[in-house]
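Researcher: Please translate sequence to structure tokens.
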Amino acid sequence: MLKKKLRAYLFTTVLMVLIFSCKVSAAAPRLEVDTSSAEYKNNTITAYGSVIAGYTNHDDRIYLRTLEPEDVGSVNAVLRGQVQGSGKSRDDIMGFVYSTNHNSLDVKTGKAVYVNDDSSGIFELKVDKLSPNTTYYYRTFIRNASRNYEYGNRISFKTLSGYELEVEYYTSDGSVVGRETFRFAEGYTLTEDDLTVPDHYILTDQSWSYTVKREGTIEVAVGGQEKAFINGDSDNTFRPDQAIIRADVARVLYTLYGENKSYSHSPFKDVSLMESYSTAIAFVEDKGYMEGYSEGTFRPHVSITRAEMAVVMTKVYGLDTKNIPIGFYDVNGHWGRDYISAVAEEGFLNGYEDGSFRPEATITRAEATAMFAKAEGRSTRPLSNKTYSDVPESHWAYEIIMNASIPM
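Model: Translation complete:
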């Protein structure tokens, strides 16, 4: 009795909702499902009912999934079923019948497909051009050797009508840089995951969403894609807590502001044109962002100090060094005092809890990355789904590094 009640309960509560799906650019078909009444995973709706069909405890599993429709205004689906025969005869014939009329679910009045004549069977039925906003009913059937038909539970799903929408991607100067057209059901809320944002652009509003209400054009603001400005190593490490060297600071500045400018000579005797960083060093010397030493060297592999980095940031971003209060007890009388006060005032580089700045201490790669990210007004959106082996999510600069660098 309990099993019969359970089967009756499943029969009355299983309801599938199949959302109208249409091709969006080259993206996969779009599917939404009422997860309160069915399981949705990997573009497949799965529900479980029981086959009564004269044979108790025979499971009936029904799957629905969308296909790309052949034309706007229709829904295609695949209905996949499993039935089990009596096991008494190999003359059993199994199949599937569907209709828009729940009273027409037999092989004479509905649309039936016969699948095999084994004692059990799995079949798949492609249903083309279903009508939008229509409820369909379907169930399995078995025809035994006596040509008597017996049927499984009736299950239903509803196709929803959708609005045709055009999305226009435009930049701050009003230029339209991309379009896409698709359909969604009324009430569906689009998010960034539904959009195919043009290459090299990102949404201006990172929390963008739109609830479908009517047909028409949706304008979506986009901006230039943030690019990586600092590299990791080929072994998939970033070395966040290692001191940054002068050559790497030059590389960062050239990446941000170099505009692919080239140089035919090296201004320093210890920087060969054959070195990968020679162009970057020539650039920062040309722009006055970084200087060499009195003997004509740049010392590219020497770590940069916090005071030296303060000088670089002040020059690059044109910070005011006049009349700024000194906030650190250990910079009075230091040659970089005014530069240190300027970057601290801007929040580019902070001191320590004990009130010191430690001007002669080296600055780490993570700290330097955070400085440039702050100065550039960067987001914390990752540029890649790859990660560095030595930058766990628990690292204080994890999001900053993932937005500034792309692991190899």
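Researcher: Any highlights?
Model: The first helix runs from residue 2 to 13.
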